[in-house]
Amino acid sequence: MKHLKKWCRIASALLMATPLCAFAASAANEFETPAKNLIELVFTFIKYGGILLSIWGLVQFFIAMNNHDSTQKMGGAWMFLGGIAMVFLKSMLNGIGVTW
């Protein structure tokens, strides 16, 4: 009889806790949507910043070609490559399996 009471208490506690679990799952879904939107916004800003940096890197590279300045050429080339990396950052992260 003691074991039956014990199992009844456990079963009733689990039944009472079930709506709480459903609410927690619903709250998690409500949090995921704004968080994903924020992540998309950040990646959009990074992408456009990368486009600007790559254009500026090309400008610096061609100015250095005109002036025959090897240091400025390398700086422009690195800035261009960094901008390209920023443009494709989201794709690179997806490629290595990073999810959000």
Rounded to the nearest angstrom, the radius of gyration is 27 Å
Structural class: mainly alpha
Q: What separation lies between the terminal Cα atoms?
A: 50 Å
Helix percent band: over 70%
Poorly predicted segments: none
State mean pLDDT (0 to 100 scale).
83
Reading the helices and strands in chain order gives HHH
Total domains: 1
Q: In what range is the share of β-strand residues?
A: under 5%
Largest pleated sheet: none
Tally the helices: what do you get?
Answer: 3
Number of strands: 0
Characterize the overall form: rod-shaped
Would you write up a description of this structure?
The protein is mainly α. The protein has one domain (2-95). 91% of the residues lie in helices and 0% in strands. It is built from three helices and no strands. It has helices at residues 2-67, 70-87, 89-95. It is rod-shaped and about 95 Å long. The mean pLDDT is 83.
Short description:
The chain is mostly helical and 100 residues long.
Reconstruct the topology from this structure.
Blueprint: H1 2-67, H2 70-87, H3 89-95
Helix pairs in contact: 1-2
List keywords for this structure.
rod-shaped; 0% strand; 100 residues
